[in-house]
Amino acid sequence: MNKLLLFALSAFFVMAEHADNPSPNTKVFAFKGDAQTGVTSTKTYTHALDFATGNFSTLTQNAILNGVQFTSTTGTSGSNFSGLPGTMNNGSTTYASIATPAAEDVYQLLKACNAGTSSGTMKFTGLTPGVCYEARFYNRVWTVNGNRFVDFVASPNGGDEITSESFTFNCDGAKSDRVLAYRYIAGADGTLSLKHTAQNSTNPLHVYAFTNEEVEEFSVLLYPLGTRVDPSVAVVNAQVALLPADGMATIFWGTTNQGEDSANWEYFTTQPIISTAGEPANVSCLFDNIEYGREYFVWVMATAGEEEAWSSTMSFTTVPAIELDPIANTLFSPANVTVTGRAPMLRHDAGTVTVCWGTLDG
What we know:
mainly beta, six-stranded mixed sheet, five-stranded antiparallel sheet
């Protein structure tokens, strides 16, 4: 029986709309004014930055939004960030595309931006290892109905393969002003790295304002496996933050997405999770009933006393039991036809493969 190994830690994340090419721990939501931004003075922020504004005397400096003061930046780096795109633009010819009314304080944050770099890596430092954070970019449209697709690779733990996530966001993809949010747990170096690459170099990333807030709630983060998974070696990973007491983690999986309906998942297993101050709780469990050539869904729920938290649902597809490589040419000599492929299910066991051919698809 094929096995799939799952490591679970602990954390909860309420998902809104995913990014254009989603990862489990990203969300996108629209706002029309200050109240909908989610910025509040009751939260703890490591960063509250208003990009490029400090370069233009005509723009509001160090704007205050819902009691939180944003620091106006003047370049690509500061005391706790670096690697921002290098061109400053006050956006004066595109203010009409800002959906938020000018009377709202967040309107000031959406005027100027850092832009002009088709690729690069932004870094935000000064984070506390083991703490759960949510990084938020406050975005508005530059070109109405435009295509400003940017691919991100987020690395909160030194670029390790387990916690790094990839997602895509179209900065000009909606008429509303939006927040792109990414939740993560800070690694040992206390740095969040965000690599960005514009799909079209003439339409690079624009960054207007940014916050990084502490997540002060029991949460579950589930990490992606990738799009091609070998059942015999694949590992699913999750993390649980701010576990209030020792509890249990339940990992659900199956070929249909049952969301938060725990009773209808095909398979599940439970493991204890231990509360440790300042660190995520760790759980490992071995999955079975995983086959080749199938799409699977995974969901993790954690409980501690009367409290519950759960992850978003993640999907992955296992590789086919046998894959044939395409034959490159359509015209060839019959004496030189070679068929190649892979049989991953034979990686650990001896066996035979039968190759069939003919003039009809049998």
